[in-house]
Design a protein that fits this description.
Elements (H helix, E strand, L loop, with lengths): L4 E4 L8 H11 L3 E5 L7 H6 L3 H11 L3 E6 L1 H5 L7 H4 L4 H4 L4 H24 L3 H10 L3 E4 L19 H23 L2 E5 L9 H10 L6 E5 L2 H4 L5 H7 L4 E6 L1 E4 L22 E4 L8 H10 L6 E3 L8 H15 L15
Parallel strand pairs: 1-2, 1-10, 2-3, 3-4, 4-5, 5-6, 6-7, 7-10
Antiparallel strand pairs: 8-9
């Protein structure tokens, strides 16, 4: 069966879910990945209101859409970060509280556990076709971030003190093992989007992340090639290395320069879209990501989940871009061959 083409609602949180759903259907999408911010998926309501999940599925089905994942990037970021005023802008007042860093991290970790339970209730109420797809993919994912207690140590000057990096991974493990145990209890899998500022941002850091949680059975990855490519990380190699842990896939493109630019890979404290940047996100098909190679690798690893457009392009109208991205993504996909191409020669 063809993989569904989905739209992540994170970049559309200024619109109601009903509005986004009808737009996405008109753009050509099969499903939505619902962000747990704005009004698209309310964890508390899913847990406390017995009619909430049913009403959500009715809204989606009325628009002709499904859902195969929810996402908790913003709250997840606060579980391990060094908390500052930036986090207040992305967290609810209940999670932020008085802003005390330990309190913020503790409340964020508890909200992740609640999110796992809310996701279970939501997907238990899903139509059979959604459950069949999730069963084919082998997991029901909640995508998100973890933050990192050691991201500020990325560039090792002043030199990192021996043991600091190891201590950071140990801290991550101590925070996230109880969270993942709650995910396991709910039979939901957490899919980390490997990404700068997270505990895992390339292949090497992903290996250390898995070791820190002792390869927990309910932890894997949301694969987004755009965050690897401009770093110079082998994103096809990532799929090869971690194929059985790819729980979800984002289709997002990025452009990077072949020559030196005035603003380097660290971004020069400039905004996305600034002229002269070494790299910038692009609408799918307008950057340099090898999506053909990605589809072939997804076929190798037998990934059966959605292909989810996370639409980000600072220089393009988002509705035009999202419409184009739906067609681009649908045209990308193909099923693997069920027979050797040269088998007929022996007939």
């Amino acid at each position: 069966m063809n993989r569904p083409v989905s739209l992540f609602t994170g970049q559309w949180a200024d619109l109601s879910l009903e509005t986004v759903a009808h737009k996405a259907a008109a753009f050509g999408y099969d499903s939505l990945e619902l962000g747990c911010w704005g009004s698209h998926f309310d964890v508390g309501a899913a847990l406390d209101d017995n009619s909430y999940c049913k009403a959500h599925w009715e809204l989606l089905e009325n628009a002709g859409l499904a859902c195969y994942a929810i996402s908790t990037h913003l709250v997840g970021q606060a579980t391990c970060d060094r908390i500052d005023e930036r986090h207040k802008a992305i967290l609810s007042p209940e999670i932020w509280g008085d802003g005390d860093p330990d309190g913020v991290r503790t409340r964020a970790a508890e909200e992740l556990k609640r999110t796992a339970r809310a996701a279970r209730r939501f997907f238990d109420a899903a139509p059979s076709r959604v459950k069949d797809r999730l069963e084919a993919n082998g997991c029901t994912p909640v995508n998100g971030f973890t933050g990192s207690p050691i991201w500020h140590l990325l560039y090792s000057f002043p030199p990192v003190v021996p043991g600091q990096i190891e201590a950071g991974y140990a801290e991550f493990g101590s925070i996230w093992t109880p969270i993942l145990d709650a995910f396991a209890e709910a039979n939901i899998h957490f899919a980390l989007e490997v990404h700068p500022t997270e505990i895992a941002f390339d292949c090497a850091s992903s290996i250390r992340t898995l070791e820190a949680i002792h390869h927990h059975s309910h932890f894997g990855f949301n694969f987004d090639p755009s965050h690897f490519a401009y770093q110079g990380v082998d994103y096809l190699g990532f799929l090869r290395e971690f194929g059985d842990l790819i729980f979800n896939v984002h289709i997002k493109d990025v452009w990077w320069s072949d020559r030196p630019m005035p603003i380097g890979v660290f971004g020069g404290h400039t905004e996305f879209g600034t002229d002269g940047r070494f790299w910038d996100f692009r609408s799918p098909g307008r950057g340099r990501v090898d999506f053909e190679g990605i589809i072939r690798m997804l076929n190798h690893i037998d990934y059966q989940g959605p292909l989810t457009v996370e639409w980000e392009d600072p220089m393009m109208d988002r509705e035009a871009g999202a419409t184009e991205a739906a067609s681009f993504t649908r045209a990308l996909d193909f099923a693997p061959s069920q027979a050797a191409f040269d088998a007929a020669f022996s007939e």
